[in-house]
Amino acid sequence: MTEVQIKRLSVFDQVCREYEVNNDNIRGTRIYISHDDQHLYCTIPKAGCTNFKKMLYNYHGVEPPGWVHHNKQLLEIGIETYHHNDKPIKTIQSYYKVAFVRHPWTRLISAYRDKFLGGRGYVYYKRLYKILGWDQCYRLNERYIRKNILPLMEEEDGDGHDGSGWSSEESSTFSSTTETTSYSRSQTDRHCLAQFSDFVDHIIASHLDNKTLDRHWSPQYQACNMCYFKYDFIGKLEYIQQDFAYLNKLIFDGKAMFGEPRTKVQSDEEMVREHFQHLPEPVFLDLFDVYKMDFLLFGYDTMYDQLYPET
């Protein structure tokens, strides 16, 4: 085991004990099991899960389908979801357990950009605009989406709700259209697209009301039943090349291939500063409370000192 993994797992174990984290209610719907390989994988949305599943298909000698998240197709290559598992917990605990995580702030921003600015999920527009009470905005955006976007979604994945099958060209076309089109809301001149601060307010309010957050921005430790399962490997998306190279040799005999990471237009620090610069400090602290265990378990810096240097 590398020194990096030893350090990460040491911090992880210490926090689990100190905070008595024990997600034994098995909420971890992102957990997949290969009994043949005796592996457990936790694939967290917005933390490289799509590429990880593509890797699993390739490793098992199967061309990845256009939409890799269907559990039925994963089952065909011998990988089942945890809640369909019939093995005793003791057996599963003996498997080699892997999770990849991501900095909570960059993951949150990625979810916001993808689901609210990228036009990749009609259901997210509908849900958030209804919650925010932006009826006029919702109707205006809905009109455009139904006419121009839903036909594409129905062609790609057949259900008209997820939009995950879009090509990058289709996604970028909608993104550029929505980002440059300004709709006015009733009694205000505000841009009709949900701002990052609106998204943050929604998350905080949902957390305070004890509502379950969407899987794309819910805390990562919940998705993986952290501390209930004693993970053997914790990779970080920020170090995906190094971490996966080590994991590949360790449990895949060097035969697995992981997709190349996207070229970054800006650094993670720049992206966080851009989106968080207008968040008042009390709001930042409330948001931190939502993701506190992710920061502690995985050893990430909150960037509080950089964002609020005069405090």
Q: How is this structure best described in words?
A:
This protein has 311 residues and is an alpha/beta fold. The protein has 2 domains: 195 residues, no CATH class; 101 residues, no CATH class. It contains 14 helices and 5 strands. The radius of gyration is 20 Å and the shape is globular.
From the structure above, extract its key features.
single chain; alpha/beta; 2 domains; 5-stranded mixed sheet; 51% helix; globular
Structure summarized in a few sentences:
The protein is of the alpha/beta class and 311 residues long.
Order of helices and strands: HEEHHEHEHHHHHHEHHHH
Please estimate the helix content: 40-55%
Strand content: 5-15%
- Average pLDDT confidence is 78
How many strands in all? 5
Main-sheet strand order equals 3-1-2-4-5
Backbone CA Rg: 20 Å
Number of helices: 14
Number of domains: 2
Which stretches of 5+ consecutive residues score pLDDT under 50? 152-191
Structural class: alpha/beta
Distance between the first and last residues' Cα: 40 Å
Largest sheet: 5 strands, mixed
Gross morphology: globular
Oligomer: single chain
Secondary structure topology:
Elements: H1 3-19, E1 31-34, E2 39-42, H2 49-59, H3 71-75, E3 79-81, H4 89-93, E4 96-101, H5 104-117, H6 122-132, H7 135-157, H8 168-180, H9 196-208, H10 220-223, E5 233-236, H11 240-251, H12 268-276, H13 281-298, H14 304-307
Parallel strand pairs: 2-4, 4-5
Antiparallel strand pairs: 1-2, 1-3
Helix pairs in contact: 1-13, 6-7, 9-13
